[in-house]
Records
---
Amino acid sequence: MCVFAVRVFLGILLCAPYQCLECPFGCECFAVTRTVKCVSEDLLTVPQSIPGYARTVIITGNNIHQIGPDSFAELENVTNIILSNNRITELASHSFSALTNLRFLDLSGNRLALIHPEALSIPGGPLQELNLSRSLYNSSALTDLTTALRWGGLRGLLRLDLSGNHLGFLPPGMFSHLPNLQQLFLINNSLVEVYSGTFSGMNHLQVLDLTHNAFRTFSADALQELGKLGNIRILLGENPYTCSCEIRSFVAWLNGSRAWIDVDAVRCDSPGGLSDTRLRGLGVQAIGCVVPVQAEVADLTLQTSYVFLGLVLGFVGMIFLFVLYLNRNGMKKWIIEMRDACRDVLEGYHYRYEIDSDPRLGADLTNCNPQTHSEFYNRTL
Ligand SMILES: *[C@@H]1O[C@H](CO)[C@@H](O)[C@H](O)[C@H]1NC(C)=O
Ligand SMILES: *[C@@H]1O[C@H](CO)[C@@H](O)[C@H](O)[C@H]1NC(C)=O
Ligand SMILES: *[C@@H]1O[C@H](CO)[C@@H](O)[C@H](O)[C@H]1NC(C)=O
Ligand SMILES: *[C@@H]1O[C@H](CO)[C@@H](O)[C@H](O)[C@H]1NC(C)=O
Ligand SMILES: *[C@@H]1O[C@H](CO)[C@@H](O)[C@H](O)[C@H]1NC(C)=O
């Protein structure tokens, strides 16, 4: 009772009575900053009778399952609505269409499973920023959202955050009805590929953030699609890039791209030898594109060693022949001596054969040694 009295007293003191008394149950209303806050009050629905002066409405940490056309009555002054972490599962048709000046809508941290095709449509398309990070519950929600972006008349949307939604793919042309989008955040999803048409129709994009996804490389189609975006800021860091030869065209693209890319964060995740190496500037040999050429090189070294061996053998042979040539006189003499000796032995043998038989002769005959034979001569004669 006392607390209530103090509150009423303070309320009367700090703001005009008609404003303070209008503040809905479970909320705090700040007339000076034109803000209404309903934080962690276990509210089951969006509170009614939000004061008309409100520009910013913050309703977070509650238990609101559904947002519908009756959730927000005509609140022409509201420009910002934060509805994060309310366990919202359903956005019905025309949920925000009474908020004709709504520019900023934060629906992050919810569990959206059902999004009506016209859930986001507001006459005049005033919305400039939509935060749907960690808010899509399953793949039906992605399909629903794609339709809602198409039918929402969001021609004025400048910023879209779809981070942390486990997105494995993006339907082609998903953003093609957001012609003025300038910043697209797709951080911390499970994207593995960009297809041609993924970013079609976005002619004013300035920032594309694809960090913390599951990209291992970018195909030629993907690089063409990214190239079409022009010289914008593209964030590609913190992806598990596999630095094998298939990443060659991506490296070449990084080498030559004039877009503003976070090249310092674009690093190899595997193979181990290259992990944490910057992709830009990687040589084609470093990423193993020259494996067949390396085999040829090995072949070539083998051939070279054979050629070398042949050369060495040839050289040794030539030296041998040269030595023989230098000694030709000595050789000649030796050969003549040898021949003479053998002739003598044979003559002796003939003689022995005719005259008598001496068993010692057989042994001496095999060895045509001139000295031995002179001995033999001396003996026999
Ligand atoms: C919006 O704010 C203006 C100026 O403060 C005020 O005159 C008008 O009544 C407000 N609109 C509503 C619906 O309360
Ligand atoms: C969207 O909301 C999340 C959490 O509520 C916040 O971290 C993120 O910065 C917001 N996105 C933008 C683009 O401001
Ligand atoms: C997504 O969740 C909703 C609500 O739980 C369910 O009705 C729907 O069938 C789910 N969709 C898929 C593809 O699992
Ligand atoms: C990515 O999202 C998961 C759950 O969706 C969360 O646990 C994780 O902290 C997020 N990581 C980053 C870097 O934001
Ligand atoms: C990238 O550039 C570096 C030098 O800046 C070059 O050595 C390398 O071969 C290039 N990589 C590719 C795949 O073109």
Note: The first strand starts at residue 28 and ends at 30.
---
Amino acid sequence: MAMSSGQSYPVGARIGDRYAVVRDLGAGRDGHVYLVTDEYLATDVALKLLAPRPGQAATWDEAQLLEQLRSDFLLPVFNADVAHPSDLRYITTAYMPGGDVGNKAAPCGVTTQQAIQWGVDIAHGLDRVHASGLVHRDVKPANVYLTEAGNALLGDLGMAHRLDPSGVAPPDGTPATVAPEVLGQGGVCTVASDVYSLGATVFYLLTGRYPADTRGETQRVLERVKAGSKRKVRDLGPHVSQSLGQVIEKCLSIDPADRPGSALDVANRLASAKVHDRVWSLVPDHQDHLLCMAGAVKRTAKPVTVCAVPTGPAQCNIEVRLPSGARPSGAGAT
Ligand SMILES: Nc1ncnc2c1ncn2[C@@H]1O[C@H](COP(=O)(O)OP(=O)(O)OP(=O)(O)O)[C@@H](O)[C@H]1O
Ligand SMILES: [Mg+2]
């Protein structure tokens, strides 16, 4: 069956004379994903049909490199190819029933310890991509999958592109996580732009929000990103330690030269960031509260919630409470 763009394949349809569609897994910015049975290997895999690139030759220089990429931190690519004569690229990977970390981190992020662990995993996967002379170009929470053991694997390598000898690749990315220098005339992707997206991804894992204000039309969001307008991680997540906040802000430096020099550097900085003793995370805001956090039990310390309660324009009380509703000794409203 010839593949064509924009077409949705029903259950049972065959793709590339090898794959039979079991279920539609959804569509993204750059293609459509199906759970398929690989009839050669008699196993189920995820197949992403990538959107066509009008006017470009039916070749895919990166395909072979992608198949060779193997790491404990990358979603394994089984097959990357172009289906002739339709010129549609496709990529097959392991099917990940555990879903992506973006879903796990919505709406308030995960604990700082969990965000660091996944951030380090993603950074190691990204470093492997860079070591092959490729840039990923779409690092974001929705492109990071969870194993049964709870580890994070960087996936969606379909947009990966070979770096030219000067270390640049054509621009691409998702508004919420793309680096500002990728946008606009002459924009390019580099190792540094992937490092920015990695920082934006860990920012999301910590807070359930992106550094860019993503509300409104895509064009407006892109204009904000390009202008360098962004929020600070500790403004949206006061539970994030100063040390960890500094790592994130460095990844999100507007000048690419100010960012950590490699994804491995980010992994090391994340792993050695000092974090609070207690395990803190954001929780959904209580009614009329501005921002609420929970600190889980730590050794002899009791679980506690900290809430910002507005008291007037640009003013709030900070309330510290035990689950019983009582205030812990020594804590008061300020
Ligand atoms: N290997 C996989 N295993 C399980 N689900 C997958 C796999 N790959 C993709 N999916 C799911 O298929 C859906 C579509 O994925 P897709 O990558 O096309 O979209 P996206 O990640 O939202 O955006 P983008 O196109 O920017 O990557 C998502 O819900 C995603 O979680
Ligand atoms: Mg994706």
Note: DSSP finds eight helices and 14 strands in the chain.
